[in-house]
Amino acid sequence: MTSIATPAAATERLLTPDEAAQFHEDGYVVKRGLFSAGELRPLQDELDRHPDIRGSQSSIPDLEGKLWKVTIWCEQNDTYAGKLPRLARMVDNTSLLLGEESYFWHIKLVRKSDDVPGAVDWHQGYAYWYDDCVYPNTVTCSVALDSNNLENGCLKVVKGSHKLGRIDMVDVGGAHVADPVRTAQILDRLEVVPCEMEAGDAVFFHANMLHGSLPNSTSRPRTLMHCVYNARSNEPVDPEKSPHRAYRPTEKLPDDTLARGDYDTVFEKHTFFAPEQLNSVGGTQVF
Hints:
It contains six helices and 13 strands. It is of the alpha+beta class.
């Protein structure tokens, strides 16, 4: 069912001052229990029924030529997928970290199963967006939809790497990755932190955070939903070039929207970006 939207109250799941301070110092912060099991169950069930996410997955090569898969969308409609990124806890927390109004950009859903051998090589989000946006003022909130651990290829971040500025992206054998030579120098100096999480946990990280993940070596899927938000003042300099990145006010929804079942379908009526769609960098990559 779908109800008439009303102005949403501020979230009660706001990051604490200490958590916000950790984000700015380290470039990331993990928020346990951002979502409940009940809220995520419809999405988990849909992924179990349609593990290929209704044919919407794009295949991305890693440095070894192996593939990993991602599904991307930016539509803000009345489906579960369209309402989740508009919940008060998402909008308020990203606005808090950005220090101003945030607006929803897109979601990248990465589902690793045992038949998906690729690794997500080290990269930064801003490296894909800097040609459009003057500042690295975006925040990603990555929500675990199942258990994410070292064995099944959890997200890894390089603590403090957001302070290094943008790292050049290079093409290596079909993979588009952070400069491997520069990255190796960074990894010699900074700590790599595995973001091990259970379903409902989330990690917020900075646009310049160097991050990646290894393949899943288990028989259980590992699913992570990266929800990306831009600062209102950081709208692309040429919105017509990448219309999906242009400023669109994000209608904040009450935090209990999903728990009340106030959505149409989960994915069935949702529109995804076409598989293998090119981004502004020019390679077959997520954007």
